[in-house]
Specification:
about 150 residues; alpha/beta; 5-stranded mixed sheet; 5 helices
């Protein structure tokens, strides 16, 4: 379990999500294996980073996956990257994503610490979009709002 002191360290715009993973072979990490958002955004070729909170028990989350795949297909060459934080529950755990989505970064938030930190209400779906400089461009429950922000950016 992550203590309040460690969570407080994340507050200044850093996202503790997990280990780097390749586009085609993402690595899963637990919340304790923290990596800063800043490092993901600094990775060569990254212009935008979306972070989607997902649970297989969340119908809107599952319905959004084909839309995330379309965004990846359309904007990946322009520097769009996707990270997915799989929020677990007792009946499902962290599972592979539907719809052919293979995120750049995947994290299994088995204790819910990341989810609770970024989505205190617990509502799902929830997604964030940052530009390469770390500016938050969107914080929304709808992937279509992320798409609008991407279009504005490009």
């Amino acid at each position: 379990m992550m203590g309040a002191r460690r969570i407080g360290w994340f507050l200044p715009g850093l996202l503790a999500l997990g280990l780097l993973g390749g586009v085609f072979a993402p690595r899963f990490a637990v919340a304790g294996d923290a990596l800063q958002l800043k490092e993901w955004l600094a990775r060569s070729g990254t212009q935008l980073l979306a972070v989607d909170f997902y649970a297989s028990s969340c119908r809107p989350c599952t319905k959004a996956m084909p839309h995330w795949k379309r965004l990846q297909d359309k904007y990946q060459d322009r520097g769009f990257r996707l990270a997915v934080v799989s929020v677990t529950d007792a009946s499902y755990g962290c599972v592979a994503l539907p719809g052919g989505v293979i995120p750049e970064y995947s994290v299994c938030d088995d204790e819910g610490a990341i989810h609770q930190h970024f989505v205190p209400t617990g509502n799902l779906p929830q997604a964030f979009l940052w530009d390469w400089r770390g500016k938050l461009l969107a914080n929304t429950q709808h992937v279509r709002e992320i798409e609008k922000a991407i279009k504005r950016y490009f």
